[in-house]
């Protein structure tokens, strides 16, 4: 028995050792497998962006706004390294997705400001569902505590102001092209006002918000100021004034009801800048020419538009179309919203399909000497005398701050209130 026991002991030991070794091998195998599986999962994670990009493209084709993560936008913009410009609400960076689609990513200022959030929500819900040849397409957005951004289609030729006011750097635009740009812009705004499912007022029409694609076709950008209003409502009242000084209609500075006609006014101011290929206000010029719209009105009134055109270096072949544009601009900047045409009529007038009516003085209410009787007046508070600060929209709280043009500020003129 003992012998067997003594002899059996090494056998038992060998079995135990074998069992332990097998168990160890099993444990090692399982650990290896787990680690491999984790590795595989990591590989899958790293492929997340290109994989979801396929879905993005699919969504893009179906014209649905896409939600991006901050990481995806960080990769697309190479860590937000290519700056395109900045405005009142954020900074714009160029980005390229893995499939080669170029985008402009507008990173919104601040994170918890309610005003910013409101604008963000308005832009996403309206632009994402609004498509027209003359509107900049919104591909999507990012909404994370660390990043709130809007992702737009990239416009290779940038904004119109660059080409109008920095002629040596930008493309020199001839009048045929400028007329086309004006018409495209008018069509984009007309679509917003009259054709898309929900009526959209832009509130910030200006050369900086007209972008140009590779063929220099105009696309209206930034529906950020848009407030939605139902078709059955004749006007909406804003809780705070908005717009860019120099382009904003009088009703935006005053506590008056706001209608889509405020965009018509801004479009008129834009049209003057297109005609003059200069900013409407230029204090370096002689007094009579400093404020281009007034100069244009005076020349129109005296039947001396040719003189204005000579001053703007307009070629004889373009005179007819430019004369038409001046008359349309004068109609658009009428003081009273109800006397301005709707945008679809502006489109037809620019196309030459409709005659442009004779215009009355758009500035009579702005200058008390020639103002209409019976109006009461409020004093203009000119709080931003430097026209170079005009490029961006800013919130104007009403009615304490009333914006005017520098010329009005210079002459300390008063503003008529209806
Ligand atoms: N989709 C785009 N494609 C190419 N460039 C763009 C695009 N969007 C904006 N940019 C560039 O970024 C600049 C800044 O745009 P942003 O909208 O922030 O400012 P803004 O238009 O000057 O002022 P606001 O805040 O009143 O709109 C533009 O002038 C333009 O040059
Ligand atoms: Mg803009």
TrEMBL record:
This protein's UniProt keywords: ATP-binding, Kinase, Magnesium, Membrane, Metal-binding, Nucleotide-binding, Serine/threonine-protein kinase, Signal, Transferase, Transmembrane, Transmembrane helix
Residue ranges of domain Protein kinase in the record: 78-364
Name of the featured protein: Protein kinase domain-containing protein
Binding positions for Mg(2+) per the UniProt entry: 209, 222
Matching PANTHER family: OS07G0415500 PROTEIN, RECEPTOR-LIKE SERINE_THREONINE-PROTEIN KINASE
One Pfam family matching this protein: PK_Tyr_Ser-Thr
One GO cellular component, as annotated: membrane
Topology versus the membrane: Single-pass membrane protein
Catalytic residues (positions): 204
InterPro entries, per the entry: Kinase-like_dom_sf, Prot_kinase_dom, Protein_kinase_ATP_BS, Ser-Thr/Tyr_kinase_cat_dom, Ser/Thr_kinase_AS
Subcellular location: Membrane
Database matches in SMART domains: S_TKc (SM00220)
Regions crossing the membrane: 12-31
Subcellular location, principal: membrane
């Amino acid at each position: 028995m003992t012998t067997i026991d003594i002899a059996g002991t090494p056998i038992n030991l060998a079995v135990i050792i074998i069992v332990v070794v097998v168990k160890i091998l099993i444990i090692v195998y399982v650990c290896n497998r787990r680690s491999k599986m984790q590795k595989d999962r990591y590989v899958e994670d790293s492929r997340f962006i290109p994989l979801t990009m396929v879905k993005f493209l699919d969504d893009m084709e179906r014209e649905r706004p896409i939600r991006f993560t901050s990481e995806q936008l960080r990769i697309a913009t190479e860590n937000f390294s290519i700056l395109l410009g900045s405005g009142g609400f954020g900074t714009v960076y160029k980005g390229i997705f893995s499939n080669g689609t170029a985008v402009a990513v507008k990173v919104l200022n601040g994170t918890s400001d309610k005003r910013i959030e409101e604008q963000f929500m308005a832009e996403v819900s309206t632009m994402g569902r609004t498509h027209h040849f003359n509107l900049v397409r919104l591909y999507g957005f990012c909404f994370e505590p660390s990043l709130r951004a809007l992702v737009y289609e990239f416009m290779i030729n940038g904004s119109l102001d660059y080409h109008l006011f920095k002629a040596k750097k930008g493309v020199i635009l001839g009048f045929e092209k400028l007329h086309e740009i004006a018409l495209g812009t008018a069509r984009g705004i007309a679509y917003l006002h009259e054709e898309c499912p929900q009526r959209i007022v832009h509130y910030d029409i200006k050369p900086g918000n007209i972008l140009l694609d590779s063929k220099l076709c105009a696309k209206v950008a930034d529906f950020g100021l848009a407030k939605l209003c139902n078709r059955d409502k004749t006007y909406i009242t804003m809780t705070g004034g908005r717009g860019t000084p120099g382009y904003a209609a009088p009703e935006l500075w005053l506590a008056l009801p706001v209608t889509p006609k405020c965009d018509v006014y801004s479009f008129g101011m834009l049209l003057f800048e297109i005609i003059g290929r200069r900013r409407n206000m230029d204090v370096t010029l002689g007094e009579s020419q400093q404020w281009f719209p007034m100069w244009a009105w005076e020349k129109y009134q005296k039947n001396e538009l040719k003189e204005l055109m000579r001053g703007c270096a307009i070629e004889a072949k373009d005179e007819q179309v430019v004369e038409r544009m001046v008359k349309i601009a004068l109609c658009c900047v009428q003081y009273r919203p109800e006397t301005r045409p709707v945008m679809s009529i502006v489109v037809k007038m620019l196309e030459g399909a409709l005659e442009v009516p004779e215009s009355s003085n758009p500035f009579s209410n702005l200058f008390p000497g020639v103002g209409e009787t019976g109006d009461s007046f409020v004093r203009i508070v000119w709080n931003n005398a430097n026209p170079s600060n005009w490029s961006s929209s800013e919130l104007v709280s009403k009615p304490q701050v009333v914006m005017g043009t520098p010329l009005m500020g210079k002459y300390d003129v008063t503003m008529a209130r209806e």
